[in-house]
Design a protein that fits this description.
Blueprint lengths: L6 H5 L4 H23 L5 H18 L6 H8 L8 H19 L7 H13 L16 E4 L5 E5 L7 H18 L4 H15 L6 H15 L10 H7 L1 H11 L11 H28 L5 H11 L6 H7 L5 H13 L3 E4 L6 E4 L4
Antiparallel strand pairs: 1-2, 3-4
Helix pairs in contact: 2-12, 3-5, 3-10, 5-6, 5-9, 7-8, 8-9, 8-12, 11-12, 12-13, 13-15
Length: about 350
């Protein structure tokens, strides 16, 4: 069985682009921490938006979907799930809430991973929720001609409990040693988790939830405010591509996690960048700036179409009613143009014509 020796990561000479990505994220984390200390701005709306986007995006990657309207109603508890997809979506929401609220008290142990998996699938009523896989699973690839081939065979069901135990122990030891940057160690752990593929179902969703958990425990909590899962879903073609590379030679301990590490670092950095853009609006106008000023700044810097939902997401210090009023004023002033109607309503800058 694979040894899960993460000490090799400390000895590896990483490419400069990976080193630079790690350094940039460290800088962003420092600025984020400073922002929270010096500007106690209320970010509740960012948190709620990120939760919805994370739940929607992570499930969408797996083909589990509902409408945006239903998603908002489900999160607001104004309706109940209508089908199995919505049951699974709500299961993800529950686990995400648990991680948001209690990550400090969730150790990286098999028993806790099993409990998170149980809660992920509880609402859908799957009997295998909270249990390691009972049958061999396979990573298949569909060729251009439509035929399917097995590209990788994960760890067998019999060996899975021991493999996950070793994986968790190796991560905890490596984390405690502080010889490997968490931004390198976490994606490496997720690579191994996916290659073990410990569950009958839910491996991808669990890998993304565990990514958030480990990042939060290491002090990188940007995922609370900007959805990491949404960034992955937006770049899912590249996500699938790097996932196809991580298992080559995995059983022989010859696989290279660098492509997945590089990809995840790019995702994390993109989230920090978006966070800074959003709180930048709050900081710039936080001392006496009006809702109109904040919305106007966003609208006149925006290229292409945007909706009232976009305005609310990017101007979290502005209430919904104030944002809509500001958009109405900007439209009346001729600075933005309203197009469409009903749910299809969007806005563009007047100077874009």
């Amino acid at each position: 069985m694979r040894s899960f020796d993460y000490s090799k990561l400390a000895e590896k000479a990483w490419n400069m682009d990976i080193v630079n990505l790690v350094a940039k994220i460290h800088e962003c984390k420092g600025r984020q921490d400073l922002f929270f200390r010096q500007k106690p701005v209320k970010l509740d709306r960012l948190v709620e938006i990120a939760k919805i986007q994370s739940t929607e995006a992570s499930n969408k990657i797996e083909g589990i979907v509902t409408t945006s309207t239903r998603m908002k109603q489900l999160f607001a508890e104004k309706t109940r799930p209508r089908n199995r997809d919505e049951d699974e979506i709500m299961g993800y929401r529950d686990v995400l809430n648990t991680i948001h609220e209690s990550y400090e008290y969730i150790p990286v142990r098999p028993s806790y991973i099993l409990q998170l998996h149980r809660d992920l699938l509880k609402k859908a009523g799957f009997s295998y929720g909270g249990h390691f896989k009972s049958a061999q699973n396979y990573i298949n690839e569909t060729r251009p001609d439509g035929t399917s081939v097995t590209r990788f065979v994960p760890v067998s069901p019999a060996d899975t409990p021991e493999a996950v135990e070793r994986l968790c122990n190796a991560y905890e030891q490596a984390s405690a040693s502080e010889q490997i940057d968490a931004l390198i160690l976490i994606p490496a752990f997720i690579c191994d988790f996916l290659c073990i593929h410990p569950f009958n179902d839910g491996n991808g969703r669990m890998s993304r939830l565990l990514t958030l958990l480990l990042l939060y425990k290491s002090g990188y909590n940007v995922g609370k405010y900007i959805s990491i899962e949404k960034q992955i879903e937006k770049t899912k073609d590249r996500y699938y591509y790097v996932l196809q590379q991580i298992d080559l030679g995995w059983h022989e301990e010859k696989n290279d996690p660098a492509p997945f590490i590089r990809y995840m670092l790019q995702v994390i950095l993109a989230c920090y960048t978006e966070f800074e853009e959003r709180v930048g609006l709050m900081s710039e106008h936080g001392q006496g700036g009006t809702a109109y000023d904040i919305v106007k700044h966003y609208a006149l810097e925006k290229i292409g179409k945007f909706t009232s939902t976009d305005v609310l997401a990017h101007c979290p210090s502005v209430s919904r009613s104030s944002a809509l009023a500001a958009l109405k004023t900007l439209t009346e002033e001729g600075l933005v143009i309203r197009k469409g109607s009903g749910r299809g309503t969007f806005y563009v800058r007047a100077d874009s014509r």
